[in-house]
């Protein structure tokens, strides 16, 4: 056997090839970005994504420190691990950005979303909509003789499942807040 052949079961990796290998498979990541609460910051963050053709699946922004004038931007995006690393590096270079955390990598995160859903129906559909809302722990926040508006909080998957069940019962409109997320534990 020549020296160029590798024995069966032997590693093909060399000690000289120390660069990390990245997958070509898109992954979903939740990023938490702490920024100065000042005009134009959100536009710069969004511009980073749009300028490079990256998609934002969910975006929420709110001031989290009134005295320090800091806001938290929670972004859900997808991309290959290399793209996600590039996004995090670029976000960290924007001047009013204080911190960038990849909640997907840093540990288990609690993710929640709020949705309000309008369902129009009468008779059996109306009764079934109320029964399902009870199972999903959705609250009725408005009602008329012909419609309900439900409020539901939970994971995006829970909200998707509730909406899918409400469609045949008369779902006409839905508004979603986007994901808010925090790491578990200390």
From TrEMBL:
Coiled coil: none annotated. Pathway: Amino-acid biosynthesis; L-isoleucine biosynthesis; L-isoleucine from 2-oxobutanoate: step 1/4; Amino-acid biosynthesis; L-valine biosynthesis; L-valine from pyruvate: step 1/4. Gene3D superfamilies: 3.30.70.260, ACT-like. Chain A, domain 2. Its EC number is 2.2.1.6. InterPro entries: Acetalactate_synth_ssu (IPR004789), Acetolactate_synth/TF_NikR_C (IPR027271), Acetolactate_synth_ssu_C (IPR019455), ACT-like_dom_sf (IPR045865), ACT_dom (IPR002912), AHAS_ACT (IPR039557), AHAS_small-like_ACT (IPR054480). SUPFAM superfamilies: ACT-like. Residues 30-105 form the ACT domain. It is an enzyme of class 2 (transferase). Pfam families: ACT_AHAS_ss, ALS_ss_C. Keywords: Amino-acid biosynthesis, Branched-chain amino acid biosynthesis, Transferase. Transmembrane segments: none annotated. GO terms for biological process: isoleucine biosynthetic process; L-valine biosynthetic process. One of its GO terms (molecular function) is acetolactate synthase regulator activity. Belongs to the acetolactate synthase small subunit family. PANTHER family: ACETOLACTATE SYNTHASE SMALL SUBUNIT (PTHR30239), ACETOLACTATE SYNTHASE SMALL SUBUNIT 1, CHLOROPLASTIC (PTHR30239:SF0). Catalyzes the conversion of 2 pyruvate molecules into acetolactate in the first common step of the biosynthetic pathway of the branched-amino acids such as leucine, isoleucine, and valine. This is Acetolactate synthase small subunit.
């Amino acid at each position: 056997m020549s020296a160029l052949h590798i024995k069966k079961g032997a590693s093909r990796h060399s000690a000289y090839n120390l660069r990390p290998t990245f997958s070509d498979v898109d992954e979903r990541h939740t990023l938490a970005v702490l920024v100065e609460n000042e005009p134009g910051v959100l536009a710069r963050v969004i511009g980073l994504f749009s300028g490079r053709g990256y998609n934002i699946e969910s975006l929420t922004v709110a001031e989290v420190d009134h005295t320090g004038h800091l806001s938290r931007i929670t972004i859900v995006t997808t991309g290959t691990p290399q793209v996600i690393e590039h996004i995090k590096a670029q976000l960290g270079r924007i001047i009013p950005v204080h911190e960038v955390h990849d909640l997907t990598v840093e540990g288990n995160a609690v993710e929640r979303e709020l949705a309000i859903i309008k369902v129009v129906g009468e008779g059996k559909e109306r009764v079934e909509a109320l029964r399902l809302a009870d199972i999903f722990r959705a609250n009725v926040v408005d009602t008329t003789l012909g419609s309900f508006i439900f409020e539901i909080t939970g994971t995006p998957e829970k909200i998707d499942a509730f909406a899918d069940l409400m469609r045949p019962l008369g779902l006409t409109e839905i508004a979603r807040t986007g994901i808010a997320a925090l790491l578990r534990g200390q």
